[in-house]
Specification:
single chain; mainly alpha; two-stranded antiparallel ribbon; 12 helices; 74% helix; disordered C terminus; cell membrane; transmembrane; TSUP/Inactive_protease-like
């Protein structure tokens, strides 16, 4: 069933959009990521203009993350205090990110920025997560306990420390603020929740328990992506409500399923699956940059070919 998207100015199959939203919702519930790192490129691939995909994708992440957070709150796996600190940094980062996005969009360079940002961040983070997770699984199967994460002295030596009881941590608020700020920029520029950056950072830098990380990540993502959506809607006018509604319906349903799946899997298994997904999307985008450069230049100059 074809449906016309007024802002994107294209016709797309409605069931395809529902399926994409559902798939992203499952990822949100399983891994604590908003799923935008997968949704936004997929929207590119089915013909949605990049500016609309980024802004509307952020809107869908709000619904999928909210659905996932409700399930995690019931299990008390959300550190609300840590989420609040991350949120402060995230809002500031989103504000800066939207300004950068608007500037590059006015110069016709936003498409190239989004593609390169995805390849860079997904490639580095996916590779690091994949190697670490495989090592942890291999050592566990060999009968040795999974290695404890090394404490980073610079994190624990910083001032302005705060007690985070749900995460069993007493650390400076500066590292969480920095992580949140980076995630806010990514949310605005790439149309992602930023969970693919925040989840590894919370595990390996802040040393939070994996089960608490997922719910806390989703909690922060809700507000940062909502704020980003509002900024894009009021400055760029690139949020397509029809597209957003179809993605949201699928995302809310998928998040509940993903949360149930994630609760039955080991932390190492969750991380290696997420790493594989990140690397897969990175590879597809990198191929597009290498094999189809003419499309990027035509979009950047605003000419249709």
């Amino acid at each position: 069933m074809q449906i016309y998207l007024p802002i994107a100015e294209v016709s797309v199959n409605a069931f395809l959009l529902l399926g994409l939203g559902g798939m992203v919702g499952v990822l949100s519930g399983m891994f604590g990521v908003g799923g935008g790192f997968l949704l936004t490129p997929l929207l590119f691939f089915i013909g949605i203009p990049p500016a609309v995909a980024v802004a509307t994708g952020a809107n869908q992440i709000v619904a999928a993350s909210f659905s996932g957070v409700l399930a995690h709150l019931k299990r008390r796996t959300v550190d609300l205090r840590m989420g609040g600190v991350l949120l402060v940094g995230g809002l500031a980062g989103a504000l800066l990110g939207v300004q950068v996005f608007n500037l590059l969009r006015a110069r016709g360079q936003v498409d190239l920025l989004v593609q390169l940002s995805y390849v860079l961040f997904l490639g580095v983070i996916g590779a690091l997560m994949f190697v670490e997770s495989l090592n942890a699984i291999r050592k566990t199967r060999a009968g040795r306990a999974a290695p404890t994460r090394r404490k980073h002295g610079w994190v624990h030596a910083m001032p302005f420390k705060m007690q985070f009881r749900a995460s069993r941590l007493y650390i400076s608020v500066i590292p969480p603020l920095m992580v949140g700020f980076l995630v806010g920029i990514l949310a605005a520029v790439m149309g992602v929740g930023g969970g693919f950056v925040m989840v590894p950072a919370m595990i390996y830098i802040l040393h939070m328990p994996t089960k608490v990380v997922i719910g806390t990540s989703l909690f922060q993502i809700i507000f940062v992506t909502a704020f980003t959506t509002i900024l894009h809607a009021t400055t760029n006018y690139t949020v397509d409500i029809v597209l957003a509604l179809l993605l949201i319906v699928g995302g809310v349903l998928g998040a509940q399923i993903g949360t149930q799946i994630g609760a039955k899997m080991k932390a190492e298994q969750l991380r290696v699956l997420l790493a594989l997904l990140v690397l897969l999307v990175c590879g597809k985008l990198a191929l597009d940059l290498l094999l189809e450069p003419s499309e990027l230049y035509s979009l950047g100059t605003g000419k249709a070919h």
